[in-house]
Amino acid sequence: QKEVEQNSGPLSVPEGAIASLNCTYSDRGSQSFFWYRQYSGKSPELIMFIYSNGDKEDGRFTAQLNKASQYVSLLIRDSQPSDSATYLCAVNGGSNYQLIWGAGTKLIIKP
Amino acid sequence: NAGVTQTPKFRILKIGQSMTLQCTQDMNHNYMYWYRQDPGMGLKLIYYSVGAGITDKGEVPNGYNVSRSTTEDFPLRLELAAPSQTSVYFCASSADRDTEAFFGQGTRLTVV
User: Fold this and answer.
1) Average predicted confidence (pLDDT) for chain B
2) CA nearest neighbour of A32 among A104, A87, A99, A96
3) Nearest CA to B62 among B46, B39, B86, B41?
């Protein structure tokens, strides 16, 4: 059974600090890794994707991938109250077409 | 562009009733998906399609059916609704398997 694990939280971070979200996955054949943000009662929206080992930066967001250790993380710098949401990690499950989703980490940014 | 449009937004069904959730996308995406999301859980894939006329089962297909007669439309049919099908349903589409998935606004379904 292919799995994606996330700490459910809530993760509470002061405004302006760095929020660090982590995700581990079980399928070593996974090629693509995605972070989606989901506000309460809304649909998920893509924040970042990463395919290669290392870091990928986009504005205040940095995705980090370590395939040897099978984890992917999302860093949010200068956290804002508007970043408060649930962050979903999704991993492409190797040879088939299915994304495997983590249960999400609820992030709370405290003013 | 409207993106992915789902209807209805809310629905209450009685046990044993049937319904169809509609999904339309105007981005000419080949890949379309139906997910369900239970409280505190991640998305579970019900069915997916890689193009018109091609559908396949996902992780939790029992109790559901789909069809894909056009690129734009991917309806989800619930037959003989059960309380276990109470959930939020999302339709999504993507240009390719490894590209961004765009989601509809979701359908909150309650079976009583």
Assistant:
1) 95
2) A99
3) B46
